[in-house]
């Protein structure tokens, strides 16, 4: 792109929303009104011009006292700037917690899990619009010391925890998605967020290798507590491309959930190994829309869903749900999908597959608008 790359980084605290009661986590004040045609592809990064910002998915979004900047370019210059800025602005925390949304104690949650000692541990409760457990949130960690690791403060002693890899958008720091990362962890998952998403699965695979070592180390907190044979990958924009490539290239990855993303070169979900699943979420006016649709439509033999957010606020530069919608106002869909695909909650199939259901044609709880979803091969 010809425009100058943004030279400021995203502050993690701006989107980390603690103990929300309705999926109203803060979304960055982004605007894509001047964005060129989508350049989302598995071989190139998402470039963001200096005039580009991503529209807040909802006018009800709650901002913290620290302002959130638009994503910087995914070029090396922008990544260096993001890295430099993050050292100054993001403070590492070894035990940040999110208070439980419900009055039930963690002890009760563990007790309810012990009734079914087999399978994946999931927090009690079915409301993916809420944080359910206290979590640890550790920054500057991972295989390269630049990612984020979040997990339930009290790990299960009877069941394994599902693993979710989260990929940030091009030029965006992982801390910008603190709300999503903590929400997933509060539902029982161990979440590793990548420093960056090149869109070729290289970072996701290294993150899983790192967790694999921890799972095999008798001296590690996660010793034999992680389910790494059926992993979920998700991410925003370029992070979505990183996710689908990981599903193709790594046998440990079972499902990919793309938020406001999609491969532009004819789609790659069609290359998923047999049995794996995918979901592609897009905003009604998002720059990713044509890529998302193409990725889904070309995957003729893959169990997959195409999820649209409709009826978004018109008082933003995009005039509806745009490129910044899925990871903030729409985060509940990612949580519900992972509880179904990784956690094994089969009753959630009815929320996505069929003619009517929560994510098929239901309201976007806590925000305006409705879901519009279609699925195939389930």
Please provide a written account of the structure.
This protein is α/β, with parallel strands linked by helices. The chain has one domain: Alpha/Beta hydrolase fold, catalytic domain (Rossmann fold, 3-Layer(aba) Sandwich), CATH 3.40.50.1820. The chain is built from 8 helices and 10 strands. It has helices at 76-89, 106-114, 178-186, 202-216, 238-249, 289-298, 331-341, 349-352, and strands at 120-121, 135-141, 147-152, 160-167, 190-193, 226-236, 253-259, 277-283, 303-310, 370-376. Strands 1, 2, 3, 4, 5, 6, 7, 8, 9 and 10 form a 10-stranded mixed beta sheet that branches. The longest helix has 15 residues, at 202-216. The chain starts with 75 loop residues before the first helix and ends with a strand.
């Amino acid at each position: 792109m010809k425009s100058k790359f943004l030279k400021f980084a995203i502050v993690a605290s701006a989107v980390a929303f603690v103990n929300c009661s309705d999926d109203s986590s803060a979304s960055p004040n982004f605007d894509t009104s001047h964005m060129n045609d989508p350049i989302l592809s598995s071989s190139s990064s998402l470039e963001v011009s200096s005039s580009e910002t991503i529209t807040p998915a909802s006018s009800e979004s709650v901002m913290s006292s620290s302002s959130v900047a638009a994503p910087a370019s995914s070029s090396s210059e922008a990544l260096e700037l993001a890295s430099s800025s993050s050292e100054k602005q993001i403070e590492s925390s070894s035990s940040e917690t999110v208070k439980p949304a419900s009055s039930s104690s963690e002890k009760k949650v563990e007790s309810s899990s012990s009734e079914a000692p087999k399978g994946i541990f999931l927090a009690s409760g079915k409301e993916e619009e809420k944080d359910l457990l206290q979590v640890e949130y550790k920054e500057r960690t991972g295989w390269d010391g630049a990612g984020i690791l979040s997990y339930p403060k009290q790990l299960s002693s009877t069941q394994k925890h599902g693993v979710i890899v989260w990929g940030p958008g091009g030029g965006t720091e992982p801390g910008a998605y603190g709300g999503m990362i903590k929400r997933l962890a509060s539902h029982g998952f161990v979440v590793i967020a990548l420093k960056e998403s090149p869109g070729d699965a290289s970072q996701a695979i290294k993150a899983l290798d790192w967790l694999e070592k921890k799972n095999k180390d008798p001296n590690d907190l996660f010793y034999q507590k992680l389910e790494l044979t059926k992993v979920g990958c998700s991410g925003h924009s370029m992070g979505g491309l990183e996710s689908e490539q990981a599903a193709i290239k790594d046998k440990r990855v079972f499902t990919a959930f793309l938020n406001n993303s999609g491969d532009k070169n004819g789609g790659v979900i069609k290359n998923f190994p047999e049995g794996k699943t995918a979901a592609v979420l897009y905003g009604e006016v998002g720059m990713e829309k044509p890529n998302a649709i193409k990725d889904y439509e070309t995957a003729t033999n893959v169990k997959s869903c195409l999820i649209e957010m409709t009826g978004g606020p018109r008082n933003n530069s995009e005039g509806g749900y745009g490129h910044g919608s899925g990871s903030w106002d729409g985060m509940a869909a990612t949580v519900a999908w992972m509880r179904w695909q990784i956690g094994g909650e089969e009753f959630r199939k009815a929320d996505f597959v069929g003619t009517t259901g929560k994510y098929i044609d239901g309201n976007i709880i806590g925000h305006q608008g409705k879901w519009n979803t279609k699925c195939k091969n389930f």
